Amino acid sequence: MTRLPIAACFLLALTTRAGSITVNPVRLEVPSDQTATSLTISNAGGGATTMQVRVFRWRHVDGADVLEPADDAAASGEAPLVTPPMFRLDGNGASQIVRIGFLHPPRAAEEGRWRVIVEEVPPPFAAAGYREDGDALQIAMRLRVSLPLFRQPEMRRSDLRWSAEGGSIAPQLVAANQGTITERIDEAQLQSDGHVLSRIAGPIYLFPGERRRFALDPASAAPVASGALQLRVDGTSALTRRDLRLSAQ
Question: Which of 174, 156, 167 lies closest to 231, judged by CA?
């Protein structure tokens, strides 16, 4: 099993030896009636670089992201293929379209989830710009960005439900995804009379059928345990306001 870190940002532009690399879009989807999607990688710098694009299976284990190589599944048509998987990208605004698709129309009864890793291939040591000059050491930077890729199910339904549990002793905010597609939570705020009691920062991905509990500060929840709380959520299922009450467990 291969575990890889998930990039905290969705669009990453770094000034490297090869220049400024950008990736667009930052979220990839393959509709249930299609077999492919694409992304564009651009180089605004003045020098050429080599890029590699790979696809990994994406799942959660105890709430943590786990990525596994999808090479075998891609050969059988169960995972997407990348074309081209590696290429030279010239500078001065040059771009490359990368196609990601399936060999055969996928069975889309359930959502498919992968991560697309876009990374710069470092040049050989001698050509990488490593040069010791007194106490100074120049090191070539390496770009790496992780993008979510979803194969949409035939029945696409968004249903993210929220509740507050645990009373004032051990208050928790609970998110349950009862839909058929992954929901992304960018930020959630629990408020009372306009005052923010707790803030949850994302991005947090909740797969279909998953529940996620977020512990709240008892000191903040106790004064309003008998009153209404207001929840605001930014993400794929945004909420401008939803009233909640802490329920004892």
Answer: 174
For residues 78-107, average pLDDT: 89
Gyration radius (Cα) of the chain, Å = 22
Q: How confident is the model at residue 105 (pLDDT cuts 50, 70, 90)?
A: confident
In tens, the pLDDT along 27-53 reads: 999 998 889 999 999 998 888 899 999
Strands 136-138 and 172-177 come out as: unpaired
Q: Return the H-helix or E-strand segment holding 115.
A: strand 112-120
CA distances from 158 to 9, 33, 99, 176, 242 (A): 24, 18, 27, 11, 17
| Torsion angle defined by CA atoms of residues 197, 203, 206 and 212, in that order, rounded to the nearest 10 degrees | -30
User: What's the longest Cα–Cα distance across the chain?
Assistant: 67
For residue 64 the two structure tokens come to 């943590």
Is pLDDT above 70 for 11?
no
Q: How far lies 100's CA from each of 29, 34, 115, in Å? A: 10, 11, 12
Q: Which of 57-61, 190-194, 207-211, 233-237 has the lowest mean pLDDT?
A: 190-194
231, 163 Cβ separation under 8 angstroms: no
Exposure of 33 in the CB half-sphere (CA atoms within 13 A): 2
**pLDDT > 90 fraction of the chain, expressed in percent and rounded:** 43
